[in-house]
Write a structure and sequence with these properties.
Methylamine Dehydrogenase, Chain H, mainly beta, 4-stranded antiparallel β-sheet, 0% helix, single chain
Length: 208
């Protein structure tokens, strides 16, 4: 902490660190941990195991998929034996995790790594990348798969069911990470993608 900061210095306290890939959800945490389980922790830190069958989790984000006012957890699963190259979302309540919903089983080609959530088509429902890509008020989901050279988004129908739409399949863009942002200021989220072996950064403008 900068001593000149208006916040001053933070007191030193002993810390216990969670495994890598922790995602902070307000006061709660969703964690993809090396123990091959998806878990979340609530205030006072009791552990809630969300799922033990999704393995090789690289992509993990939060968004209100079902419009109940509470964040849900969206995850990719790279390895088997149960859900290789798959995407799922988990319904959460105040009591904890309630249900697993498979967006696509073995349909997210090329070891899906990073994903986000947004309303891609402007219908008010979120789609998978986290953001409203279609302008319908529902969150949509976009996913990048680096070994299949595919960039794809999944349209949310508002009930948590998703339809896949390809963004880029022909340019051999080896996607490793992606984010959504309204780059051109038109009110629609665009996609910014980082390539690994392709060694580039690519911007996809949303024209929906």
């Amino acid at each position: 902490m900068d001593p000149k900061s208006p916040l001053g210095r933070l007191p030193r306290r002993a810390a216990r660190f969670l495994p890598p890939a922790a995602l902070i959800l307000a006061a709660d945490l969703a964690v993809a941990a090396p123990l091959k389980a998806l878990a979340w922790e609530r205030r006072a830190w009791p552990l809630h195991v969300v799922d033990r069958e999704l393995n090789g989790i690289h992509g993990l984000c939060a968004g209100d998929v079902d419009h109940d006012g509470r964040p849900d957890v969206i995850s990719s699963s790279i390895t088997g034996p149960f859900f290789p190259n798959s995407i799922a979302w988990f319904q959460l309540s105040r009591r904890g995790p309630e249900a697993r919903h498979i967006v696509t089983k073995s349909g997210a080609d090329g070891r899906p790594h990073y994903l986000d959530f947004a309303d891609m088509n402007g219908d008010g429902r979120g789609d998978i990348l986290l953001g409203d890509f279609d302008g319908d008020g529902d969150g949509d989901v976009a996913v990048a798969s680096y070994t299949a050279f595919v960039v794809r988004w999944y349209e949310n129908d508002g009930r948590g069911f998703f339809t896949a739409h390809d963004i880029d399949t022909g340019n051999r863009q080896q996607a490793y990470d992606l984010k959504s942002a309204d780059v051109d200021g038109d009110g629609r989220p665009d996609l910014i993608l980082a390539g690994r072996e392709s060694r580039n950064a690519v911007l996809y403008f949303n024209r929906r």
